[in-house]
Amino acid sequence: MTQTVPGYDRLTVESEKLGGRPCIRGYRFSVNQLLELFAAGMTFEEIHEDFPFLEPEDAQQGFAYAGALAQRDFYLPLPESA
After folding, report:
1. How far apart are CA 25 and CA 3, in angstroms?
2. ∠ CA 55-28-42 to the nearest 5 degrees?
3. Cβ proximity of 71 and 21 under 8 Å
4. Rounded-to-integer distance, Cα 42 and Cα 38, Å
5. pLDDT tens digit string along 7-43?
6. Which residues contact 47 (CB under 8 A, 6 or more apart)?
7. What does the longest C-alpha to C-alpha distance in the chain come to?
8. Is residue 80 part of a domain?
9. C-alpha 19: how far from its chain's center?
10. Could you give the CA distance from residue 9 to residue 46 in angstroms, rounded to a whole number?
11. Which bin fits 63, alpha (ψ -120 to 50), beta or left (φ > 0)?
């Protein structure tokens, strides 16, 4: 069953698709894949050539979702004393 990520109408989750990772509009293309391609230096236009179903709004929501996750609290392990 496809579910929309709350607050992100272009992001979907299906337990049987890509291990339940958030995807773009039900495609087998995860938010993580999108971010990795941008991090590798590709522009949206270059990514769009390889994945023509993507729309600019998909990228905007992917970045917004990643930004929201980055604001969550997380803790680094303390180094062990020597």
Report:
1. 10
2. 50
3. no
4. 5
5. 999 999 999 999 999 999 999 999 999 999 999 999 9
6. 34, 37, 38, 54, 59
7. 54
8. no
9. 13
10. 24
11. alpha
The reply to whether 53 falls in a domain is: yes
- The pLDDT score that the predictor gives to residue 77 is 79
Residue 62 has a pLDDT of: 97
Q: Domain holding 36: CATH number?
A: 1.10.10.10
Q: Which domain holds residue 59?
A: 3-69
Nearby residues of 62 by Cβ (< 8 Å), 6 or more positions away: 11, 24, 31, 34, 35
pLDDT tens for 43-63 read 999 999 999 999 999 999 999
Q: Is the pLDDT of residue 71 over 80?
A: yes
Task: Report if residue 77 sits inside a domain.
Answer: no
Asked if residue 33 is part of any domain, the answer here is yes
Task: Report the number of distinct structural domains present in the chain.
Answer: 1
User: What are the backbone angles phi and psi of residue 9, rounded to the nearest 5°?
Assistant: -70, -10
